[in-house]
From TrEMBL:
Cellular localisation: Nucleus
Alphabetical list of InterPro entries matching this protein: Nup186/Nup192/Nup205
Key words of the record: Nucleus, Transport
This protein's name: Npp-3
Organism of this sequence: Pristionchus pacificus (Parasitic nematode worm)
Gene Ontology MF terms in the entry: structural constituent of nuclear pore
GO-annotated cellular components: nuclear pore inner ring
Family: Belongs to the NUP186/NUP192/NUP205 family.
Amino acid sequence: MNSPFHLLSNNCPLPAHRKTPCSRIRVPESLPYTNKANFRMWIKTQGVSQVILSFDGFENADDVKRVAELIRNEQWRLANVLKNPGPSPADKAKMVPGGTVQLGDDGPIQLDATIASMSLKISEAFALNEMQALDLVLTAEIKKMSFDGLGLGLVAVVLYYDAHRLLAHTLRALLEWTRREELPAALSSVIKSSFVNRGVFRHLLDLTASFTVHNEFQTLATKHQGLGNLLHQNMLRSMIEETQRVLLDCVYLIVGAPDFAQAAVTDLCPLLKKLQPGDRFGHAHMVAWTALVSTISPKALQMAPNESSAILSTLLEEVRNETAWGDQFLCGSVQLAVAVGIRRLQLSPVDHAAAAAFDADMDVLAGRAIVNHAFEIIRRCIIQNDGFHGNETNIQVADALLKSFILLFPPKLMEMERHSEDELAGLDECAANGSTPSHAPAMHFTHFLESMREIYQKKQPGSVLSKLEAKVFKPTEQLFPHIEALLDELSAQFGLDGSQQLVQFCEMATRPQHAMHSVAFLDLLYSICRTQSTARSLFEIFYQIGPNDDGWVGWEQFMTALRSYEKLFRDGHPTMASTMGMMGVMGIGKKENINLEKSMHKYELAGLVSWCNLATKIVELDEKASMIVCDERGWTVIELAASLVAAPIPLTLKGPLLRLLGALGQRKAAAVRVWTALASFRVCALDENGQLGGIQRELEEKECSMRDYPSTLGAAHMLRSLLAHPLPASGHSFLLFLSKSIVAPLAQRSYNNVHQMWELATVSLEALHNLVHQTHADTFAVQKRLPQVKILLELLNDSPLFRSVFSIISEDVLVSLHSHTLHRPSEAAAAAALRLLLAAVHRLQPLRRMQPPSAIRAADSDALLATLESLFFAPFGQPERGCLLTHIAHYISKSLEQPLHALYAARLLRELSAVRPSMHTRIVHMLKMSDQLHHSLVRSVRRLLNVHEGGIVRYGVEEVNYLMSAMSSVEEVDIGMVQGETARLLLEVMAEGAEVDVSRENLASFLLGFEQVAGEAEKLFENDTMLTGLHALIDLVESFIESDSPLNLQYSALFEPAFRLLLRLVSIDAPRRMAILRHLRSTKSIYRLVRSPFIQKQARNLLDETRFEVAPTGASVSSMITGDILHLAAIELSFLLSSGQIEQPRAFYEALLETNAELDPHEQSTVNGAEASTLEGCSTLNTYDETTMCQPPQQPLLFCLLRNGRTVSMDLPVVPTFACFDSVKIQKR
């Protein structure tokens, strides 16, 4: 999701997680951001940030000198981010209504009462100098038109936080320069002296604790009334969180700077040592611990071994005196880091002298760290901290520490495991005897495994060991894409191309061990299985375990356990042997007979769930592993899993088994086997009374009463995979289960966990989409009453299924209007619902059209279809929640925050508007009932079309076809392309509206914000100061004119529909064409289009007859744009001539009919249409007569374009003799 504050700056867009700018500029000869503009807070910050972030002239001495001077001028502000020059009594005295103040070189400014009062409030709120507060208010007045619904003061608050966000990004960029291999001395000295010091470090460290969303919101809300509506809060939240992340990067960059780590340790150790066991371990303590450990990390030891050696000596003395630490467990975590660092230094061949200085036994220190619960404190206080997964350094430091322990202390690892085994055996003995343990077990090895797992996946992957009876499982929190990429990279170290020692660590999961350790190991492997390489490695680890390896666990043992359970449940034995199934595999040992009516033992249930989860993950990522699992004759895993699903096993196990079947069914050949197995064991089949049984009965009798739906959710995941392939006859009952039992009554059921409800809705709707996406609504399908056609008809009628889909969308819209969070649980479900409706609507016309006869009529079917109007305009019993059309408009208005939703909504809007011409008027009448929605739509259209605002749209001409083919998996498409397609669709809708319904209200005038009733001579907008999509459209045309190769721009796919819309707006019968033409004429846009580099290049492509073969899309789009430009020129000429103008038409005629000097094909031309040529260097009009036909004629621009626009089979147009245009006279003029 794009941050909403991208609309602040056209010149300095900063993605939330990137560290490098997307554009490059040269340092200006004279920097306007010096002390002359001390009071220009936001504008000055934006300019400085733009220069620093885009600077790449490190080899240019003059540029380096100017940037160094700029850094010196801005030193205080950059070193004191989020600090402000305090109020000044002298400046405060100037803030009076009617007073005059001077801001830099801008001249005197006279203050009115509103500006003066607002400036004083901003100054008081942020302890800001009054002149800087005034600058914020004046800038806010200029930027206010970009913030519909926000007052002047609220916009000033946004600008304040944005200024400090830009300062933080600038500071981070400067600190990153210090890590360059070759940094000019002038820059290196000024950066290190200004920012790499203890003062700046302490300030940034304090900000990690004090600068939070909660603290800032509380201050704004309680003291200064500076907190506005939901839009304002979301913008501030995004900026504050981004600033937090950037400042955290700055802390770690300063710590990693050369020759500063020792000073950082001096500040960090006291902060950690004074922490007491009862104190809250907050975000600042996590940052301090990470920064401290990073000074002795493997990367630090490699870059600066001497400095790291000195730090290790200091820390070794600190951790030896455990009594000096307030929290001994925290001391243990640092002891572990010191032991790992010294051991690595001792084993390094780089500096033996430094390693020899440490005579202490690191095994003893590591053992002491383990006794002090180092892994538990790392897990609970560091990894489980709310901000841990928001920063790359946090993850890298913790991951490197734990992996280094595996690599450098394998005996300690084995010792830890043996101690935990003994502790667990003692617990089992106490449980068997009914006694209470004398002391709580330390469980160091379990904490170590859990720490490793939570680095890669914070939430449980479905394990039921820790909270077997718990029904609430929150999903894994969303991570930034660069964090996901980092975790993938780190997990690859466990793969085939990674460390052999880490692979051997993973092999420990196959050894005989306690069931709790085995489950923890499997959950760890599930979390680190993120790449195909890791999945292949893990599969090979378990695959090499043979069936006769006593006590060892592999795929053979897992399949044997499944087979044992399957035989047990199939034969219906009242009891089961203790050595059967997972009891023996998990190493539980012999037990008494267990009644089948009771739940499985918690360890065997947890083991089966973990095995199924891991197998599912491996099969999803590695196709080869999937083929082996499916085709291994001795395993028959598909049949075993289906048989177990049909048996009365715990529902907690059925869900993972069904997911495993779905993962195996991703391949078409395996999907057929899965369908056959499900039908054979009657997992969901109709009985003699026509009622569904199997999982349907369990849903009604068990899951609904428990309000927990693990089995149904697993079935939905399985059907999502299976329905991506052709549906067999045996799958009809599953469609009934999916539509009638899951989706339709979704809102009527009770749930312990709302996240589970929305996940169930999302997966089920995606499964239905897979079915509808491959449904062919032809006569045969209607005649045979195929189930997929029935589903399609239900989606296109007022049925319970459609109402459920509508309620999901309605609920998400309602929550988004009142929610203060950026991510909602219902977000994914709403996107799936819109996507499903879009797929159904696409298949509506084949069912309904009359010529040729529709599928329903041809099949003589009695099926009914609702009209799109009835589906889109009806509130379905909930008028207060609006209709589907208003929900679609809501998502379009949130195009930046929810790009996928907006894309689906725009496609649905186009389908609706294409029904008939009068539909535009009906749509407008429905949408204009809400002024707020109308303003939001106008703003969204402007933001989408404003390609210079934040670099949002990335949608080239050649990418259109690619996105169309990738729409089935649009979530994997670049968001910039998705937003580009949304903008293109809206341009198409507006162009069609302006063409088919020009005399009445249409979507073009509505979305562009025109006055609803306007004549040709009237103004376009009610408020001339507002920015609309028309302004963005004209800016798009300007970017086309100014570019030498407009079709190579990142948003080139928008040009053709934009010109088509503009042409419709100025067409002969358009009511507002005069006003729009006057606007275009004020900047000479149409004349400049005729003179643009694009038109000249089109003329040069005169003889390139292969262009449609080499780049057919680009050539076709170029021809269409050329035609639109010529049409615009013709309309403008017609208006100018009819109004008696002379000079401007003459300029047009000269541009169109003068000789094109750039053509030089050097070919003879004949009158009958043979190839033509021009003489390079001529710039005059030429007359053609019989005496000049033998010479190579020179082509005027107009006729070059006409020739270029022809098809290959057409004859070339003959250049006429100009009787009315004498080149000699024109030259004289």
